[in-house]
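Design job #97: recover the sequence.
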C-alpha cells in the first residue's frame, strides 16, 4: 500500500485519497464507538464515559500522537 502524507491528504493506492481532517474525524468516531461499547458492557462507569467523551480529542482537538 502506497502512503504519502503532506499534511493535507493521505494517498492510498493511486486514485484514493482522504484528507487529514477526514482521517482524524474517522479516528474520533471509532474511539467514541469503543468508549460507548465499553460503557454498555459495564467496563466504564457513567463518569468515566462522560470524561472520555468530553476530552479535547473527542471534540475536534488533537488525535493521540498525530
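Job complete. Output follows.
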Amino acid at each position: 500500500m502506497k502512503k504519502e502524507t503532506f499534511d493535507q491528504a493521505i494517498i492510498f493506492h493511486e486514485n484514493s485519497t482522504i484528507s487529514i481532517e477526514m482521517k482524524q474525524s474517522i479516528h474520533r468516531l471509532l474511539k467514541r464507538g469503543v468508549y460507548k461499547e465499553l460503557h454498555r458492557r459495564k467496563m466504564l462507569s457513567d463518569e468515566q464515559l462522560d470524561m472520555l467523551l468530553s476530552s479535547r480529542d473527542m471534540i475536534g482537538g488533537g488525535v493521540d500522537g498525530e
